[in-house]
Amino acid sequence: MQAHLGDQLVIESPTTGAARRDGEIVGLHHQDGTPPYDVRWSDTDEVTLVFPGPDAHIRHLEHGPGTKHGLSQPLTTEAQAAPPAHPPTATPNPGDIGRRVAAERERQRLSREETARRARMSPEYLAYLEERPADPSVATLIRLADALGTTVGSLRGGGMDLPPGQGHALLHPRLRDLTPVECRTLLSTHGVGRIAVSASDGGPAVVPVNYEVVDEAIVFRTAPDSVPAEAVGTDVAFEVDHLDEARSQGWSVLAVGPASVVTDPDAMRALARRAHTTPWAGGEREMWVSIRPTTLTGRRITTADR
Hints:
Blueprint: E1 8-12, E2 19-28, E3 37-41, E4 47-50, E5 56-59, H1 77-81, H2 96-107, H3 112-119, H4 123-131, H5 138-148, H6 152-156, E6 173-177, H7 180-187, E7 190-198, E8 204-214, E9 217-222, E10 235-244, E11 249-261, H8 265-274, E12 287-291, E13 295-303
Antiparallel strand pairs: 1-2, 1-5, 2-3, 3-4, 6-13, 7-8, 7-10, 8-9, 9-12, 10-11, 11-12, 11-13
Helix pairs in contact: 2-4, 3-4, 3-5
């Protein structure tokens, strides 16, 4: 028997063929992929060391030589003892999930080791997920999403054109106010937020912008003739939030304060150097606007038992 990280171990009844238990292989103890394996069971989400018996099969992610419909032959004493003739030597080819995990981890400047620790998995398994066209279990995706502060839907790339929050509400939700310290922490250093202004046509407008937090001021780049630029010289509201679709939880932070344009050339150059990203909308957006919050409030939705 030979397995790769991410393969599924299936324990079946020899007489009926009905699956009794299955799990995801999250750890290998031999480079050639022979047993034993660390398996995360789908029914308990627990990881155990497994020496597969004759009723065990490996369901491979990708069909290869010697497999039928992705299912390996039952383990035998000979198969367990004999090393495979061709150890896996495939060139890394990450799938969509792996690319999204790696991009989010790098965006947050997290090492693989730290991300793996938060997600309760081995760094080797995380490397496999990022470098191979893996098909991790839902439980694995939930832990990764929680470790990265994102959602399972985002890691899967689903619902890109749908508004967030289409899941069901919690059975016993709890809504609590956040402290100013918690609000500043959630604002973090950068991201995408929404600025609310009174547009020149007399109506209100809410526009998303890429922002930075510098010396407790919220700053963003825009064009002089844009709607966000109309915030200059007025009191505005700026909002950021995060929704965990998988858990129906989330938070929002609202900052209110005067907006002003940054005119000092040295300050503008310093902001440009510190910026984590250019505006996603593209174009010439070299006008920096600064918001100094006079009030900072926020709320978080969690389960009632937290």
